[in-house]
Amino acid sequence: MKILAWLIAAVGLVATFLYIQEGLTGTGPMPWLSGFIAGPIIALTVVPMLFRVSAALENSGFGGKIPAAYRGAPIGMGTVVALSRTGLSVNDQPQLLITLDVDAQDGRSFRATAKQMVDLTDMPAVQPGSLLPVRYLPGNDKVVLATDAPPAELQSVLDQIRLAKGLVTPRQLQISHQGLETQAVVLSLAPTGEIRGNRSVVSMGMRVTRPDGSKFDLVQEKTLSPEMVAQAQPGAVVRVRYLAHDESEVIVVVAAQP
């Protein structure tokens, strides 16, 4: 869009020059009413409008593009607090103003907003309580969705944030990286009454299936988000990891949203 705006601006300037030249040197009865009058009209009305639209689209998240200032910026995890439409829409995709509580990798949290074009089919994933990866600039309360980050990087960021906030231990991170992934059935889930980082601490009983098909049971305290509590009710099947040589601790696998 910006390239198109510059091309039209160049055409407008050339036409404006020819219009002025024709007006000053023309010999007709009305030299200022030549066809080149379109030049000033383009330069004064069309070109500014195109640049405004270009600027709006550049920072709108249209097409999943990241603004230049945010490329390579730190990634955090934002929890959606509220959202509203800005009034801009492109190809039936509305632009949303998303308010988020962002967790940085050093454990800090801050309130920020993002403007993003969202396909109507993706709207269910952008609701209050949803976890979205964002890129942020220190000291700036404007963020952009990290649509360019690969899943492996997002998972690493999520792990670092949980570690910085004390939601996981270094050993649990080791299990998440080196452990065997399998399935477990939730046998029991009871709140302890403790809260860590706005998450509930629960006593969770599980029956874990080993790779050979055999099973073992254990009960552990887990710090779970409200969404995870809803997914880990008794009878639910969850993904877990554990070290093959040590079955005393398992972790529930929580995938970062791409």
Please describe what this structure looks like.
Helix content is 29%, strand content 38%. With 258 residues, the protein is an alpha+beta fold. The protein folds into three domains: 2-58; 65-148, OB fold (Dihydrolipoamide Acetyltransferase, E2P) (Beta Barrel); 166-252, OB fold (Dihydrolipoamide Acetyltransferase, E2P), CATH 2.40.50. The strands form two sheets. It has a five-stranded antiparallel β-sheet. The protein has a five-stranded antiparallel β-sheet with strand order 8-7-6-9-10. A hairpin with a 6-residue loop joins β4 (131-136) and β5 (143-145). The two termini are 27 Å apart. The mean pLDDT is 81. The chain crosses the membrane at residues 32-51. Keywords: Membrane, Transmembrane, Transmembrane helix.
Radius of gyration: 28 Å
In whole angstroms, how far apart are the ends?
A: 27 Å
Could you tell me the strand content as a percent range? 35-45%
| 3D shape | elongated
Total domain modules:
3
Q: How many helices does DSSP assign?
A: 5
Q: Tell me the name of the CATH class of the largest domain.
A: Mainly Beta
| Major sheet: arrangement of strands | 3-2-1-4-5
Mean pLDDT: 81
Transmembrane segments: 32-51
Keywords: Membrane, Transmembrane, Transmembrane helix
Secondary structure elements and pairings:
Blueprint: H1 2-25, H2 38-58, E1 75-90, E2 93-103, E3 109-117, E4 131-136, E5 143-145, H3 151-164, H4 170-178, E6 180-196, E7 199-209, E8 215-224, H5 226-231, E9 237-243, E10 246-252
Antiparallel strand pairs: 1-2, 1-4, 2-3, 4-5, 6-7, 6-9, 7-8, 9-10
Helix pairs in contact: 1-2
Keywords: Membrane, Transmembrane, Transmembrane helix
Transmembrane segments: 32-51
